[in-house]
Amino acid sequence: MIGLSHYLILSVILFLIGMAGVMTRKNLLMLLFSTEIMLNAVNLGFVAISKFHHDLSGQMFSFFIIAIAASEVAVGLGLLIALYKRTGSLDLDSIAKMNG
Fold first, then answer.
1. Is the dihedral of CA 19, 42, 66, 4 positive or negative?
2. CB 21: neighbour CB atoms within 10 A?
3. For the segment 71-87, what is each residue's pLDDT rounded down to a tens digit?
4. CA dist., res. 12 & res. 18, Å (int)
5. Is 13 exposed, middle or buried (0-12, 13-18, 19+ CB in 10 A)?
């Protein structure tokens, strides 16, 4: 039987994978993917706790997080395309060396 603790452990593991990706990646696209993994881990935790307590508030809050993640992807991809057109690379070190 799969219980609440199994879902929360999976959520923590996914969050740690996303955090490791944010801390170690030099590519902007992989940084966005890692952020999405972290947001989905939080969503999994909210939905699992909401299901356990028979309350819909965690699931509704998860929908708001999904909407914020979608807007983050739209803005992030726009910036990513602009950066790639300007530098020809998605390396985060090239952003720090940009001269205006």
1. positive
2. 18
3. 988 888 888 888 888 88
4. 10
5. exposed
Distances 97 to 1, 25, 26, 63 between C-alpha atoms, Å: 53, 17, 14, 38
| CATH match for 27-93 among 1.20.1250.20, 1.10.287.3510, 3.40.50.300, 2.60.40.10 | 1.10.287.3510
Whether 13 and 36 have beta carbons less than 8 Å apart is answered as no
Secondary structure letter of residue 64 according to DSSP: H
Cβ neighbours, 10 Å, residue 31: 19
Q: Where are the domains of the chain?
A: 27-93
- Whether the predicted model's global pTM rises above the 0.85 cut: no
